[in-house]
Every structure is written in structure tokens, then in C-alpha cells.
Design a protein that fits this description.
The complex is a heterodimer. Helices cover about 75% and strands about 0% of the residues of chain A. Chain A is an all-alpha fold. Chain A is globular. Chain B is built from 14 helices and six strands. Chain B is about 70% helix and about 5% strand. Chain B has one domain. In chain B, helix 2 crosses helix 10, helix 3 runs antiparallel to helix 4 and helix 3 crosses helix 9. The chains are: A mainly alpha, B mainly alpha. Chains A and B meet through helix 4, helix 9 and helix 11 of A and helix 5, helix 10 and helix 12 of B.
Chain lengths: ~290, ~350
């Protein structure tokens, strides 16, 4: 492979990796911490995108508009959690069905209220030299890495993180130790929603914003969560790395669509080999190592 | 309820009313009604695998649509009577084989519960993307052009026969064929869930590990159930496509994929009749709303789904069934109300 070819592959990988990470991380936080698969994930992304485009069109600078998108989505998630989702903890399948109902309502309401199109945002920062692509994708990748680092810090180093992980591991014990688990669920859901909103906000300049905008993230997000397994950070990173590599390699040779197909085949093979996801294999490996020591 | 004379009488009345619809409301009602009945088959396929075996598939539309496309491809290339008969059989075979392959991969791969749900949904969404990008001329099989988002048009009507002897099924005939298929499938599934195999299915739903301990091959049971579900969804898909003479990628879309889940959840997934009723009722309301130019149908359907799952998670029909049982017990006023046998209650309709 020539130097330019390698560079192109590298750029392709960075672009796809960032997309998978950002699309997945909100879903993964809610699934990993609370055991709820949010079928309305795409519509949370939609809220972030619409809030961004409309505040930007109203004259807010882009970073502020994106921040508005994140905050609004987090608040929106909080309201939904209080009204509906909190009745569904421990009822995994019901929660999927209900959030799907929410998704249907939201797509259609968006269409009724805002019509089929939203104002566009130009891609900021211009084009890269050598490889054919906008600088903005590198910014997205940096944000993706930043989000992963931030989540690691949040869950490992802060008081909130310890309480949240305690709630996830053993709710009854955590509550008897004085953790307000109800509130932990609420804030974790808000964090997950905010991250979904971030994905929507960041990709608003790159993808056309329509009522079906969120659906464009779903395949990658669901596949990465399934391949990654229950552990939020490790699973998301490894799954995004694996799927991103396959996708980028095939996209480079055979085009975007075949890249997506190859990624799915890789995902199905991965699930066939590791039914509990990558983190399931890691957990087994750790257990075995513990036994042999 | 499932075996009482009142139940059979009710079923007979319901079928008679459905059969009389074209006579009462004209040919147009038959045209629209046949689509609803094909949807009811799709809904029943989900109620069967979810309600009776605990496999929640969000991708039943994948089999529905694949069978529709398969019929279109074969039928457009072979418009003779023999060809159309073969197309009918082959397209159901294709959806059955597709379900068997997917099921084999999932169940023998140890994929369970929620992962099955997500994988089936992803399969449907990928088919949506795939069919959407087939607009170019290179995407054609013989004379059949897949047509991308514009869909595949010019699919012939259903016909059965060999050589020159046989019948082409027209508009009215198609309605009765679909109704017949629905009734026969319902009776067949009823017999199946009340058989030994049906008990094994329900045991698998209730506790898979324990059932496996008793010596049942639960993986195989799930595979068989999933495959049957795929075949029924495929049958619905063929009848849907031949009614419209058209199929497009939206049958695989996220909204279409949600509908079977709505019917089964609202009607009651453990009740085949309930799901059929919900499918007919919801699609009728959807149709009326669309006809009056309203855009609110999906909002209503989605809200209904949220409401029903929150208020009565088991669905409307099982809840009604309970009320009927309770009121009957009160009326009997027997000193010791007989405990309804649990297993019989699970499978009854």
C-alpha cells in the first residue's frame, strides 16, 4: 500500500471509529448501567440535532448551539425517565417495546411540527490537505476520544461514579449503604441522553437533518453495543475499534455500502464466537487467570 | 374460553362477518381488507414466536419483505400459471430458509433474549438500506428490476395451476384467499400450541434452563418455532405483495418493523386472536386517519403502545379473558372456585 493509500485508510478509520463511538456511547451508558435498551436512542440523537440546527439558524455560534443540543437532550431524557422509563426498570423487553413506541411518536411529531427538512449547517474548518476529507472529521475523532476519557474519569474517579457503579452492581446493598439509587438511575439516564444529543449535535453539519436522521445511527449503535457487551467503556472502545477497522478497510476498497455490509458480517461472526460480547470474553479470561494464580 | 362453545361461536361469527365484508361494502373494501388480513398474518407470526416461545423478534418484517421481493422476482420472470404457482411456493420457501438460517446462527451460536431482538431488528434495517440502493439498472434479476426506493412494480396477481389449467385469482378471490390463509394458519397454530410440542414451547418460554434439564432440546425448539414464524410472515408478505402488485424497501423500515410489535403488544402476545384483532383494528384506524389527510396516525399508534405496556403489560385480550373468567366465577358462586389449570390457561385463547 502506498503512503497516500495508507493515509486514506487511516483517515477512513478515524472517521468511522469516531462515528461508531459517538453513536454508541449514549446507548451503551444506559444499557450497561441500567440494563435498558433505549430504542428511542435515534430520536434522542434527533433532539440534539434539531436543537443545534434551530439555535444555530437563530444566530447562536455553532459551539454554543451544539451545547444547547446536548443540554436540551439531557433535560428531555430526564423528563422521559421520570414520566415513563422509571416504571420499566427490570423489565428489559417491555422497556424496549415502550421506547420503540416513544420513537414512533417522536419521529412523527417532529415531522408534523418541523416538516420534512431542517435548516442546514455548513461544515466548519475547511478541507484537509493530501487526503480527501474535511478537517471537521478529525475534530469529531478528538471529541470521541475526549468523551471516552471523560466518561472514564467520571465513573472511576468521582463520588458520583462510585455511587453509580455501586447501584449497577447491587442495587439493594447500595441503597442500604445510603445511596439514593432512584436518583442514580435518573442522572445516569440523563448522562446517556446528553451523550446521544452530543452525537446528534456533532453530526448535524455533516448529515442532512430530517425526521429520520436518528435512524442513520441505529445500526452502528446497536451492533457496537451487542458486540461490545455489558461493560460500557471497554466494550465500546474495543467494538468500535474492531468494527471500524473492518468497515474502513472494505470501504477503502469497495465503497461505503460494502463497508457497512462487511462490518455487519464481522459483527455476526463476532457474536457467533462471543455471545456475551467482547467484554464477556475478557471477563472469562480474567477469571481463568485468577484461578491459575 | 379457548374451547367453549361460546368461543367457537364467536370465531364463526367473526369469520362470517369478515367473509361478508365485500358483499356489504363493495369491492373496494375487499381490496383494502386483504392488505389488513395479510398484516394480521404477519402479526400472528410474531405472537406465535414471542407469546408462546419467548423469542421477541423485531425483524418479522424481514421475512415478510423477503418473501414479497422473492415472489416479485420469480413472478415477473415467469408469468405463466405454472410459474406463478412455483413463485408462491418458492417465495415462502425462501423466507422459511432465511428464517431457518438466521435462527440457526443465533440460537446455536448461543445468542439469547435481548440480543436476538436487536439482531433481528438490525437484519431488517440492513435489508432496508440494501434494497434502497438497488435503483441502478445493474440491480435486476431477469426482467425484474429491484428499483431502489421506488420499489418493484408490476408484480402479477396470485394464480394457481399447471400448464393451462388453473385459476388466476382476481380482486375478490384474493380477499377470500387471504382470509382463508389467515383462518387456516390460526387453526393450525392453535393445534400446534395445544400439542405436546406446544407445551415444550411454553416451558422453554417460562424457563429455558429447567426445560433443557428435563431433556428437551430447547435450542432446536426455538429454531423450529422461529422458522415457522418466518414461514407465516413470508406467507403474509406474498399475499401483501400480490394484493398491491408492488413492493418497496419501506416494508423493511423501522416504522414497518414496529407495527407487528404494536399489534402483538396491544392485542396481547399470548393471544393469537387478540393480535389479529389488534392488527385489523389498528390498521383500520391508521387507514381512516390517512384517508382524512391526518398525519397523526403514528403518534396515536405509538402512544397506544406506550399506554398499553405501562397499564396492562400482557395486552388487551388476555386482560379481557381474565375479566370473563372472574365474572363467570362470580356468577357460578360455587363455594370453592376451581383453580384454572395453569398450563391450560397459558395456551388458551
Amino acid at each position: 500500500m502506498t503512503g497516500a493509500g495508507l493515509l486514506n485508510f487511516g483517515f477512513e478509520f478515524v472517521e468511522i471509529f469516531a462515528f461508531i463511538v459517538l453513536a454508541t456511547v449514549g446507548l451503551a451508558v444506559i444499557f450497561g448501567m441500567m440494563g435498558i435498551i433505549n430504542l428511542a436512542h435515534g430520536e434522542f440523537i434527533l433532539v440534539g440535532a434539531y436543537a443545534t440546527t434551530f439555535t444555530f439558524a437563530a444566530g447562536l455560534p455553532l459551539p454554543l448551539a451544539m451545547l444547547t443540543g446536548v443540554v436540551l437532550t439531557a433535560v428531555y431524557g430526564l423528563v422521559l425517565e421520570r414520566l415513563i422509563v422509571r416504571h420499566l426498570y427490570g423489565r428489559l423487553l417491555d422497556s424496549m417495546v415502550v421506547t420503540w413506541g416513544i420513537s414512533l411518536v417522536m419521529i412523527q411529531l417532529t415531522r408534523i411540527v418541523f416538516g420534512n427538512t431542517a435548516p442546514g449547517i455548513g461544515i466548519p474548518f475547511g478541507q484537509l490537505p493530501i487526503v480527501d476529507g474535511p478537517v471537521y472529521y478529525l475534530v469529531l475523532a478528538a471529541v470521541a476520544v475526549g468523551v471516552l476519557g471523560g466518561l472514564y474519569a467520571l465513573f472511576m474517579w468521582t463520588e458520583f461514579g462510585i455511587r453509580a457503579r455501586a447501584t449497577m452492581q447491587d442495587e439493594a446493598t447500595a441503597r442500604s449503604m445510603g445511596v439514593d439509587t432512584d436518583r442514580m438511575y435518573m442522572s445516569t439516564f440523563a448522562v446517556g441522553s446528553g451523550l446521544a444529543g452530543l452525537a446528534g449535535a456533532l453530526y448535524a453539519p455533516v448529515m442532512t437533518v430530517t425526521p429520520e436522521y436518528g435512524t442513520g445511527f441505529l445500526v452502528e449503535a446497536f451492533v457496537a453495543v451487542v458486540v461490545g457487551g455489558a461493560s460500557v467503556l471497554v466494550g465500546t472502545v474495543l467494538a468500535s475499534g474492531l468494527l471500524g477497522t473492518v468497515n474502513a478497510a472494505v470501504t477503502n476498497v469497495a465503497g461505503t455500502f460494502m463497508g457497512q455490509v462487511a462490518m455487519l458480517i464481522a459483527a455476526i461472526v463476532a457474536i457467533r464466537l462471543m455471545p456475551d460480547g467482547i467484554t464477556g470474553v475478557l471477563a472469562d479470561w480474567r477469571e481463568n487467570r485468577g484461578e491459575s494464580q | 374460553m379457548g374451547n367453549s362453545s361460546a368461543f367457537w361461536l364467536g370465531l364463526a361469527v367473526a369469520v362470517a362477518v369478515l367473509a361478508a365484508l365485500p358483499a356489504l361494502f363493495g369491492l373496494y373494501a375487499a381490496e383494502v381488507g386483504a392488505v389488513f388480513l395479510a398484516y394480521a398474518l404477519l402479526g400472528m407470526s410474531l405472537a406465535f414466536i414471542w407469546g408462546y416461545c419467548g423469542i421477541l423478534s423485531f425483524g418479522q418484517v424481514a421475512f415478510f419483505g423477503v418473501a414479497g421481493y422473492a415472489f416479485g422476482i420469480i413472478a415477473i420472470n415467469a408469468t405463466t400459471l405454472t410459474g406463478l404457482t412455483l413463485a408462491l411456493l418458492a417465495s415462502i420457501a425462501v423466507s422459511t430458509a432465511f428464517a431457518a438460517a438466521l435462527g440457526y446462527f443465533m440460537f446455536y451460536g448461543g445468542v439469547r433474549d435481548v440480543y436476538v431482538t436487536i439482531l433481528t431488528l438490525v437484519v431488517a434495517l440492513v435489508l432496508y438500506t440494501f434494497m434502497g440502493q438497488t435503483a441502478g439498472g445493474e440491480w435486476s434479476v431477469g426482467d425484474a428490476r429491484l428499483g431502489g426506493f421506488n420499489g418493484m412494480s408490476g408484480v402479477p396477481d396470485l394464480a394457481v395451476g399447471i400448464g393451462s389449467t388453473g385459476v388466476e385469482i382476481g380482486l375478490l378471490g384474493h380477499y377470500y384467499v387471504t382470509l382463508g390463509a389467515l383462518v387456516v394458519t390460526y387453526l393450525g397454530l392453535r393445534a400446534l400450541v395445544n400439542s405436546q410440542f406446544g407445551y415444550a414451547m411454553i416451558a422453554t418460554r417460562e424457563d429455558e434452563d429447567r426445560t433443557a434439564m428435563f431433556g428437551y432440546d430447547t435450542t432446536f425448539i426455538k429454531l423450529v418455532v422461529f422458522t415457522i414464524g418466518g414461514a407465516i410472515a413470508g406467507l403474509g408478505g406474498v399475499l401483501f405483495t400480490t394484493q398491491n402488485n408492488y413492493v418497496d424497501p419501506s416494508v423493511f423500515g423501522i416504522t414497518a418493523a414496529a407495527l407487528p410489535v404494536v399489534w402483538a403488544s396491544v392485542g396481547g402476545r399470548t393471544s393469537l386472536i387478540g393480535t389479529v384483532g389488534a392488527a385489523l383494528a389498528i390498521q383500520f384506524v391508521d387507514y381512516r386517519l390517512a384517508l382524512s389527510g391526518s398525519e397523526w396516525a403514528l403518534v396515536v399508534i405509538g402512544s397506544l403502545l406506550v399506554f398499553v405496556v405501562l397499564v396492562m403489560p400482557e395486552g388487551i385480550a388476555p386482560r379481557l379473558h381474565e375479566y370473563v373468567l372472574e365474572s363467570r366465577e362470580d356468577a357460578d358462586s360455587s363455594p370453592v372456585p376451581p383453580d384454572p389449570p395453569a398450563a391450560a390457561e397459558e395456551v388458551s385463547d
